[in-house]
Design goal:
six-stranded parallel β-sheet; 367 residues; alpha/beta; seven-stranded parallel β-sheet; 18 helices; globular
């Protein structure tokens, strides 16, 4: 079969690549054409556009790049028509994908959504649109199945693909990791400021301010695939290290982490790393978002899944040097770390076991 896959972010590239591998096991003649990244390209097929060309964050940034976005939407529609796939698979990235899905459905293509948009957080009425244009919805968070059921829409919970990604990873031992990046023996505090320039610029300086306050630790930045070293160097001191394209090994060897909101919060938790969740956007984007996002009490996936505050969230005006120092000091204390680790085990159990990618592929091939 011919599969047209659209993933617009780094996490989508990861989960898309694992899904493609599983589809190949079930469909040895599978052909792929996709929007994604390097990981999907390694599996095979044709990369149409890299997610680096698609990353616009916040309401203001989207408005500033609206012509590019509209051009990409038009191009994608034409590309689907020209290639005539058997199935169109959407991976998260709702701002783009929910504009392509109705077109694909109207033109007779089978539509599958893998990794649901966060409609449970804001614009819940998008479920009406999803029901009309998506033939099969595969969700990865346990509470999403009940959410969709309240709208009379049956979806399949396949488990979380991060568990698959970690199971496949051969993590580096600490001594090898330290030597590889020229790190010393001090415990590592990992900094995950995001993947886009706007969010990194907003958060990284405050994160790096902790270096002078916690001298018994070394701070290491997780460099995003789409950003060059010079960009990070413009924001940091000379002694700070950047680990590029190796976030999982960094987390595996980290003592604690300061993490931007998003999938990274879940990655740190599944790696059993105590964390503080940090978020800061442009004031206008934040104020608009605050009024639109309803029905949720937290922004981190860890707290949302467990339905309680397990990890501290410092959002917008709360994200200050003083507050970050206080919360980082907390998660470095033994008693606090033990409590978090216990909660993390509950989180893993709620997400189910490994095999999300295989389960998703099985349902896609069967449909």
């Amino acid at each position: 079969m011919k599969y047209y896959i659209i993933a617009g972010e780094a996490s989508g590239d990861l989960h898309g690549s694992n899904l493609m591998k599983e589809l190949q096991k079930l469909d040895s003649a599978a052909e792929f054409r996709f929007w994604g990244g390097d990981l999907m390209a390694e599996v095979g097929g044709t990369l149409v556009k890299h997610y680096r060309e698609l990353a616009f964050m916040g309401f203001i940034e989207v408005l500033m790049n609206i012509r590019t976005i509209l051009s990409n939407i038009y191009f994608c529609k034409r590309d689907i028509l020209d290639w005539q796939p058997d199935k169109v698979i959407f991976i998260d990235y709702p701002g783009f994908n929910l504009r392509i899905a109705p077109f694909a459905k109207e033109n007779g293509f089978e539509t599958i959504y893998y990794i649901s948009p966060q409609v449970w957080a804001w614009k819940s009425d998008r479920v009406k649109k999803i029901k009309k244009c998506i033939d099969q919805m595969l969700v990865i968070l346990p509470f999403e199945k009940d959410f969709y059921a309240r709208w009379g829409y049956q979806v399949e919970f396949v488990g979380h693909p991060l568990l698959d990604a970690f199971a496949q990873k051969d993590f580096e031992k600490k001594e090898i990791f330290l030597k590889k990046y020229g790190l010393n023996e001090k415990p590592i505090i990992a900094l995950l400021p995001g993947s886009r320039k706007q969010e990194i610029t907003k958060k990284l300086p405050t994160m790096l301010a902790m270096e002078k306050l916690f001298l018994d630790y070394q701070f290491v930045i997780a460099g995003a695939p789409g950003q060059d070293l010079e960009f990070y160097q413009s924001l940091m001191s000379k002694g700070t290290k950047v680990v590029k394209n190796d976030t999982y090994n960094l987390l595996h060897n980290a003592h604690a982490a300061l993490v931007t909101s998003g999938t990274a919060t879940l990655e740190a938790a599944l790696m059993k790393v105590p964390e503080v969740v940090c978020y800061k956007g442009s004031r206008i984007s934040y104020e608009i978002g605050k009024r639109l996002i309803k029905n949720i009490d937290y922004i981190s996936l860890v707290n949302l899944i467990l339905e309680k505050e397990v990890v501290k969230e410092l959002i917008q005006t709360d994200f200050t040097k003083e507050n970050l120092q206080k919360e980082l000091a907390k998660i470095l204390k033994i008693e606090h770390r033990k409590r978090i680790e216990k909660e993390y085990q509950e989180l893993r159990e709620k997400l189910g076991g490994e095999g999300a990618s295989a389960q998703a592929a099985k349902l896609i091939v069967k449909s």
